[in-house]
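Before the break, one more example. Copy the sequence into your notebook; we will annotate it together after we see the structure.
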Amino acid sequence: MLLLVAACAPQPPVAREQASAGCNAEAVQQFVGQPADATAAEALRVSGAKSLRRYATGDVLTMDYRADRLDVESAANGRIVKLTCG
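Here is what the structure looks like once it is written out:
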């Protein structure tokens, strides 16, 4: 019975650093300022992420979190302004 009660106890939330083990955004910060069209695929490879989401600043995005996804935000001029995992 004690085992069943323990299984129902709330679990601590997983920290984003732990959850993003499949994506390393720090490794791709050198791509900030580069053209997104030319470097997004290379950034994906270097980050170790399994998928890529490209979007422009101000675009509407879903709020889903995927630890194995690299998010590439680009400005109106097509240059990368931000790289994050999630």
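The two ends are 38 Å apart (CA to CA). The chain has a mean pLDDT of 84. Try to locate both features in your own notes.
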